[in-house]
Structure formats: C-alpha cells, structure tokens
Amino acid sequence: MSGQVGRAALPSHIVWDWNGTLQDDVQAAVNGINVLLARRGLPLSTLEIHRRHFGFPVRNYYTALGFRLEDEDWDELSQSYYDAFYSDPTPRLFDATMPTLRRLRALGVGMSLVSAAERTVLVSSLKRYGLDALLDNICGLGDRNAQSKLELGRDLVGRLVRDCGFDPRAIWFIGDTNHDYEMAAACGASCLLLTCGYQSEERLAACPCPRVGSIADVLGFFGAES
After folding, report:
1. CA 154 to CA 190: how far, in whole Å?
2. pLDDT string in tens for the chain (226-residue length)
3. How far is residue 215 from each of residues 59, 64, 166, 174, 197, measured CA to CA in Å?
4. What's the CA gap between 10 and 109, in Å, rounded?
5. Helix axes 150-164, 178-187, angle to 10 degrees
6. Of 14, 63, 128, 204, which is least packed with CB atoms within 10 Å of its CB?
7. CA separation for the pair 200, 198 (Å, rounded)
C-alpha cells in the first residue's frame, strides 16, 4: 500500500473506474496516442509523460503533448485514437480484478462502473471478460470524446441514495485519476485511488483521500481478505 492508507468499513456500494483501474491498459493508451503523434511529426509519449499529463478534460492532455487543436477536427481525432487504442493487443485485466470483484460480491457489496468510455464499446469489453454479471450498473458516455464523468457519477449516486437509502459516505469511488476523486467529492461519497494507472502517485497525492498501489490492495484496505 502507499499514500494515506488504513482500514475502512466495508462499503455499501463501490463505483469502479474502468481504464487503468480494472483493466491494465495504460501502455495501450500511450501506444494509441503515439500513432497520432507520429502522423503529425510530434515527439512521442512515454508512460512517464502520459502519467504526468493525462487528465480531464482530455483536450488539455492533447494540448500538453503538442497537438494544435485549433487545426484539428476533434471528433475525427477522437475516432482515430479509439481506432488505435482498440486495435492494440496489450490491454488485459489486472490479475486481481476478477478475484477482488467476486469476493466483494460474495460479501454482498453492490458494485457499479462509471467510465468516460463510449457505453456500447464499454459494455462489449465487460461482457468479453465476464465482468458485466458482477456489476449492478454500467455507466458510459454517449460518444467517444472522453469528456467528464461527473454527471454520470452524480446520477448514479443520486439513484443509490434514493432507491437504496445509502449514506453517500458509504459509497466508495475507486479509480486511478484525480477526476475520480473530483467525482466522489461532488457526490459526497468516499474515494480510494490506485497509483498503478493513468496518473502518477505524485499527482494523486494532491487528492485528500486514501491511496493504494493497485486493485490487489483493495480487499486488504476494506478488511475483506478471504
């Protein structure tokens, strides 16, 4: 474990992020953006550069890498990135993803997923891994522009509070970016950040919430080891 660590009570509900949290795909993200950078003769990215600059809105990330967005068609640029990302062979589930979700489900913890990925592609990916059966709600965006997930998170927490009577503080967002923390804070929910994903631990340290190294540490954080 790393950062602000400790033990927390088992959540009423967990809201997972997808990319970099349950799926190990940061290298695919770097490879995908490098396809676009190479076509424009721009310096290529690395894992370190990606984790230093990636964030939401993703337009700022593209600008930091040297894209002149005023000269680009954003929809076409987003589609080109998606084509490169989803053709990359490297993404896979983290080894601890399925055991962790199965253990939490066995303990009666409800789980949902909120992602900035386009929903139809997201659902297809989750079904391929068999994760869809472990999730109560799958929330993705309606397009491929990777904008903020904030409204998706707010809507989901609102439904959980209204329909299930949950205390928002007992709902935990688990992700790998400061945007996951921002979403949790906006909902009055709790947040646990994983330092293995899309942003560096140094950036995540600015968020006043617990941090652990990866999904392999989540059960221990909640005292839920089998």
Report:
1. 13
2. 455 555 789 999 999 999 999 999 999 999 999 999 999 999 999 999 999 999 998 999 999 999 999 999 999 999 999 999 999 999 999 999 999 999 999 999 999 999 988 899 999 999 999 999 999 999 998 655 556 688 999 999 999 999 999 999 999 999 999 999 999 999 999 999 999 999 999 999 999 999 999 999 999 999 998 6
3. 28, 29, 24, 9, 10
4. 8
5. 40
6. 128
7. 7
State the distance between the two ends of the chain, measured CA to CA, in whole angstroms: 18
Chain segment 43-92, per-residue pLDDT in tens: 999 999 999 999 998 999 999 999 999 999 999 999 999 999 999 999 99
- Locate 64 and state its tokens: 């930091």
Q: Count Cβ atoms within 10 A of the Cβ of residue 96 and give its class: 0-12 exposed, 13-18 middle, 19 or more buried.
A: middle
Q: How far is Cα 182 from Cα 188, in angstroms, rounded to an integer?
A: 10
Q: For residue 45, give the DSSP letter.
A: P
Tokens at residue 12, please?
């009423």
Compute the distance between CA of residue 54 and CA of residue 219 in angstroms, rounded to an integer. Answer: 27
Q: C-alpha 33: how far from its chain's center?
A: 18
